[in-house]
Amino acid sequence: MQITDMLLTNRNARPGTRITPRGLVIHWTANEGKGANAVANRNYFNKPTTEASAHYIVDDKQIVRCLPETEMGYHVGAKSYKPEALKLLSSYPNNCTIGIEMCVNSDGDFKSMYQRTVELAADILKRYGWGVDRLWRHFDITGKNCPAYFVSDEFARRFTCLTAAQAWGKFKADVQNLLTPNPQPTPKPVDKVSIEINGVHLKADGYLKDGVSMLPVRAVSEALGVEPVYDAATKQVTVNCHDLTESIESGVSYAPARELAEALGLQVEWDGTTKTVKLSKGCVCN
Ligand SMILES: [Zn+2]
Predict the structure, then answer these.
(1) What pLDDT shows up at residue 286?
(2) How much is the pLDDT for 181?
(3) What are the entry keywords (predicted)?
(4) Which helix (H) or strand (E) holds 177?
(5) What is the CA(95)–ligand 1 centre distance, in A?
(6) Which end of the chain is more exposed for a tag (fewer CB within 10 A), N or C?
(7) Hey, is 130 helix, strand or coil?
(8) Total domain count for the chain?
C-alpha cells in the first residue's frame, strides 16, 4: 500500500502530544467540490488557522499521511461524548484514536477511494492486532453526521443501494474480509451439489438441505461479477439488493439456488443424475 507522507507543520493541528491508539475513527471530508482531494484537505489542515486534523486522508488516487499514528490529531473533539465512547476509549477520545478522512470530491471516483480506505483500515487493524470492533464512525463518538453515507440513508443511497446502517455494516465486513480470507466451503460429501454457470463448472460446491440446493453466495455471485453485501450487525446477506434466506456453514454463506438465481437474474436447472445445479443467463432456447 502506497502512502504519501505530507506531515503537518501547523502546531494548531499537530500539537505533538504522544498517544497510544485504542481505536480507528472513520470520517468524510463532507466537501464534494472539485479538487477537494487528499492533498487539498491536507493543505487545509496545515493552514495556521486550522485547528482540525486527521492521521490519514484518502482519495481515489492516494493516501496522504498527515500525522504519525503515535501523535494526537483533532478529529473527534466535542463538548460531550456518547457513553460507549467514554467507556471504551477515554474522556477525550482524540487522545487514543487514529482518524481517517474519506474524500468525496465530485471529480474523484468513490469506489476507488472506498477500496483504498478499506485496505488502509485493514492494514492498521492488522498492525495493532485489532478486530473490526475497533472501528468507529465519528458519529458513534460524538453524534456528528460523519461520515454521512454511513449515518444518513439519504447520503448512503447516493453511493449505494444500501441504507446507511447497511453501508457501515458492509464497510466493516469488507475490512474483515481482508483480515481473514474466506475459508473454502466444506459441505458433507454425501450432500455435495456441483455447480455449473453457463456450462462452466464452478470450483466451489453447494450442498443439499432438506431437498433444497444451497449454493455458496460469494463464490457464485463473484463468478458473475456481482459483489454480495454482508451486514455484520444483522448477519443479513443481500445480492443486487435482494435479501437472501442464507445459512452459514463454516463461515460461508449459502442461499437456496432459486433465490440466488433470481437475485442474479439467472435461470436454474437441476440435473439429478450428476447432482448439479445449472445456472444460465438469459433464455433457455431449447
Ligand atoms: Zn468526522
Answers:
(1) 42
(2) 65
(3) Cell wall biogenesis/degradation, Hydrolase
(4) helix 164-179
(5) 15
(6) C
(7) coil
(8) 2
pLDDT in the model for residue 282: 66
Flag whether 89 is in a domain. yes
Specify the pLDDT at position 44.
98
At 221-252, the pLDDT tens digits run 999 999 988 877 777 888 988 888 888 887 78
143 shares its domain with 208: no
User: 50: CA distance to ligand 1 center in Å?
Assistant: 15
- Distance from the alpha carbon of residue 44 to the mean position of ligand 1, in angstroms: 15
Nearest by Cα to 172 from 52, 20, 26: 26
**Which secondary structure element, helix H or strand E, spans residue 159, and what is its range?**
helix 153-159
171 and 253 inside one domain = no
Residue 184 lies inside a defined structural domain of this protein: no
How far does residue 77's CA lie from ligand 1's centre (Å)? 10
Q: Are residues 135 and 212 in the same domain?
A: no
CA of 145 to the centre of ligand 1 (A): 8
If you measure from the C-alpha of residue 253 to the centroid of ligand 1, how many angstroms do you get, rounded to a whole number? 33
Instruction: Report CA(27)–ligand 1 centroid distance (Å).
Output: 4
| Residue numbers of the domain that contains 156 | 3-179
CA 34 to each of CA 26, 47, 116, 228: distance values in angstroms, whole numbers, following the listed order: 22, 20, 19, 31
Q: For residue 194, how far is its CA from the centre of ligand 1 (angstroms)? A: 47
pLDDT per residue as tens digits for the range 165-197: 999 999 999 999 999 866 666 555 558 999 999
Mark whether 108 and 142 lie in a shared domain: yes
Residue 100 has pLDDT above 80, yes or no: yes
